[in-house]
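User: Please predict the structure of the protein below. I'd like the answer in structure-token form so I can feed it into my own downstream comparison script.

Assistant: Understood. Taking the following sequence of 635 residues as input:
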Amino acid sequence: MQSPPAARRPIAPLPDMLVSQIAAGEVVERPASVVKELLENAIDAGASRIELRIEEGGIRRITVADDGIGIPPEELPLALTRHATSKIGSLAELERVASLGFRGEALASIASVASVSITSRTAGADSAWRIDARSGALAPAAGTTGTVVEVADLYAQTPARRKFLRSPATESAHCIEAFRRVAIAHPEIGFALVIDGRRTEQWPAGDWQARSLAGLGADFRDAHRVLERGEEGHGLHGLLGLPTASRARADRQYFHINGRFVRDRLLMHAVRQAYADVLHGERHPAYVLALTLDPALVDVNVHPAKTEVRFRDSQAVHRLVFNAVRDALRIGAGTGPAPGMRMAGPGAQSAARQLPSRSQDGLGLEVPAAGVTPAVFARHPDDGSPAAADRTMAADRGAAPGWPAAAGWAPGLAGIRAALAAFEPADLDAGASRHGAAASGDMPPLGFAIAQLHGVYILAQNADGLVVVDMHAAHERIVYEGLKAAAAKGVESQPLLIPVTLRVDEIAVRCAEEHRERIASLGLELDPISPTTIAVRRVPLALARADAAALARDVLDELREHGSSRAIEAHRDELLATMACHGAVRANRRLSTGEMDALLREMERTASADQCNHGRPTWVQFPLGEIDRWFLRGR
């Protein structure tokens, strides 16, 4: 049974209040949205101190007070009018917007779903002035230079929307997170947070590193790396949480562009890829990153919430972020703080090492060249000879059906075996240089070996105290980096006897055609044979046994979404990680002091040697002062 046709309604303009309430649905999702908008307005006003007060999770009241330039009384009614702003006045200014706000709709949207009052005083004015958004009444009031915005009874006039809010405790947590996101990006401003009459946060103005640590939390005070790339006004800087301090949820990830917090898939993908080699797939890194660009290169006018952006050259941005984060993580063991539970003192920072030469990326910023070729500590059980190495690797292959040689790696395996077996560590124990270095104070970051514990751990003495090294985990990383360096010298490919076809959409076909050369450089040949079909004709030799169709889909998906792909490298690295695990020195292998010292030196020279291939720490530092406390020395 057909329903009767709907009665025609005439086209009519919506009432202004309804228009504002519709807009509020995008701008004011919950109390935290109000917090974000008001804090950003205070920053745009040039404030040096901002205080946020919330009651009952912000549902009952939100108050933001600042010491900015204030609003003249004649402009207060305009501040509550939709699409009225002092931030921009032309399309040219919109395309280069540098302020956090610019739409001129936040206060009007908030006032449509809550009771709003603004009290403001400009410098030199006789008094402050207060306006009530409901009545429009404007009157003199007491107040210092700056602005106080009070928002009460959120969604009181729209009870259906209020039902979607969570408990006050949950909404309060969201408000705190919104406060952090804004405050972290502006260390030059002092921030305070008061919840239900109790001051919970007090962040004085200071340097960006201290503010970033305040945002990440105490867990990362000794478990982070500093990233600084480019120059002031054009570059990337931030703090990267160590992989060993990763989290089960992605709740400590802050990315800012020109002082604005964003949640951009391109940027998150670049950071995730940079961590992939040192972090277990189920864990999430913690970081604070700030990207500063010419405002003309980024479009912030994408969504009313202003947390989404578009880049003029997204590939260059992705490349910059990926390379910068990866290279900050790829330092030799001992260069930064210990990745384990106990952190080293200042002496562990003494041997900072620069990694390879730099090149220019598409944004004009220097980017270190990828790849580092460390020597490989490759003594194996038995007598440590090349023949013994081959025997051990052969035995491992027999014990592990997934050994990569069976997946097409065999042609390059002979060279890798030679590299693994050729390295013979110097016997540092017999040389006078070892003792001379210790006596002169020229101590390496990881020090010198003193013993082996249970055939698993190396105990070493450095300038700060005792170092404990997991020898298998450390050697596994060293071997892995050596294998990657060998594999990166060239991508060999192999034709498929019978091409694999896969059905895709037309966008994927165009992507394959557009990026044909880039895909070929990865050792993959994709040939569009119809508007919705692609044939895979060649694959990388190392991945000859892999699922060619799945590999092609992964590459095309990444190219479509991010403009670049590391899918092939990720598949290859999984195989190399398996090889490294089999090739690394095993537990209960007795090492001489010279061999242990050689492993320590290789750790210091090898990028990412602080963690094994699975993200676990390879060494822990026990400061001498802490050891003294164990034995109550000095009491």
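That's the full token string. The chain has three domains: 16-203, 208-329, 366-635.
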